[in-house]
Amino acid sequence: MNNEVSIVINEADNVATALCHLKAGQEISVKVGKKVIFLTLKEDINVYHKFSLYDILKDEKVYKYAQVIGESECYIDSGRHVHIHNMRSLRG
Amino acid sequence: MQLKGFRRNDGSVGIRNKVLILPSVACAAETARIIANQVDGCTIINNQLGCGQMGSDSERTINTLIGLGKNPNVYGVLVVGLGCEVAQAKIIAEGIRESKKPVKVVVIQDEGGVLSTVSKGIEYACQMVQDMSKEKPVKIEISDLVVALECGGSDPTSGLASNPSLGLASDMIVKNGGTVILSETTEFIGAEHILAQRACNSETAADIFKIVHNLENEVMRMGGNLRGSNPSPGNIAGGLSSIEEKSLGCIYKGGSTPIMEVVEYSVKPKKKGLIIMDSPGQDIDSMTGMAAAGALVCAFTTGRGTPVGNPIMPVIKITGNSISFESLSDFIDINAGEILTGKKSLDEMGEIVFNEIIEVANGKRTKAEIFGFSEISIWRCGISV
After folding, report:
1. Can you tell me the distance from the alpha carbon of B381 to that of B151, in angstroms, rounded to the nearest whole number?
2. pLDDT tens, B190-206?
3. By the 8 A CB rule, do B154 and A56 touch?
């Protein structure tokens, strides 16, 4: 069985995807390539939703699959839910 | 596993044997339905178009109806017309006859009413079903298969589990000489550079950029913004934040082989291998276009879950979301979410999906097929007039 609570698809990514419902204040470890990152979640993350691995500055690109999936609309500190409220599509 | 199918007069191969009752226009659809309901072995297309159309829009509708009739899963066709429509039954019948299959026509205004049309239509359909029943399945190869790829009700598990699994299966089909069609141009936006790098030549790469560019121009012309439409409210609730994120997950289902050709909506590919069709992200429009291009079976990934099927080709549902599979297992065939829970590896799941496509091609019925789901809609490019 897989005990990971989240997945990072590529080490170039700055977001992870939750594999189960995660709680604010939860301390988790995330595998990023060969590294392991430890972080505390700032808010609840629904299953399959994304959270920031690092601090993301306003207007910084958001990466998943090592590709740009959008741009942040505000400063997003690590462990935050990243979704339509704080990132925008560059194509939509 | 030895594959069996039906060899048609034009040399093409089908994996199902159906008589198609094809209304040329929406006005004949109910009459056609009465005929189809009466005769076992028939399938019907619920055509909502065929009149009040012009130019490239009516041309596309007529070509799509002809393509659906020509699909090798169809043994023979009864075209049911009204008489005064733009999509004339006789023109559609003539187009389908190029494939040398049995085609009959009944026209409501010529037959003197619905009752005589139904009576004659049933007579024709009964004869066709009896002739069809004498067809013997013959040995066919994976290289004869044309697989439509589709995703609908996507969520982040689509890009993590179901589409990568289907991508491996697509590669296996192509490596065995078969054809797979990747569609939904909307869901190339933000991922077109990756697809273009995989094009077999610079012309095909340019075609990939062109269809995405044309679509984006059309969205702008409509004063539009994709957000709220694609990704849809369900995509967003599931965790997809942008069309780029959705697209990057979507294209996994095409696998990793070179893209051989870009075809227009409902147009039959000239080449084998991985083909791109210009079609919208609307699932039913897209599946209809691929069936009209000769796709025999559809592999459909879903995160949120959708029950849709197709009247011409069996549709296999694959989810990457174990929660959806638990609650919606009556219409989802495969749970690729087992990759995310660590029960299966991606390679194992690719094998499972490939084997399912082969088994379904060999006659195993999918859940959507057993329910009799047979959605059809044709992608429009014009206004009703």
Report:
1. 22
2. 999 999 999 999 999 99
3. no
All residues at 6 or more sequence positions from B138 whose CB lies less than 8 Å from its CB, including other chains = B4, B5, B6, B7
Q: At B356, list the tokens.
A: 């399912």
Domain range holding B338? 142-371
* CA-CA-CA-CA dihedral for B272, B274, B279, B285, to nearest 10: 80
Q: Which helix (H) or strand (E) holds B116?
A: helix B114-133
Confidence at residue A2, expressed as pLDDT on a 0 to 100 scale:
61
Of A1, A46, A69, the CB nearest to B245: A69
Interacting residues of B193 by C-beta distance below 8 A, sequence separation 6+: none
Q: Is residue A1 pLDDT above 60, yes or no?
A: no
**CB within 8 Å: B160 and A7:** yes
- Residues B185 and B297 grouped into a single domain: yes
The closest alpha carbon to A19, from B304, B152, B339, belongs to B339
- Taking an 8 Å cut-off on Cβ atoms, the answer to whether B227 and A90 are in contact is no
ipTM above 0.95, yes or no: yes
**Structural domains in chain B (count):** 2
For residue B323, the chain A residues in CB contact (below 8 A) are 47
The model's pTM is 0.96
Whether residue B316 lies inside any domain: the answer is yes
The dihedral region occupied by B52, where left means phi > 0, alpha psi between -120 and 50, and beta the remainder, is: left
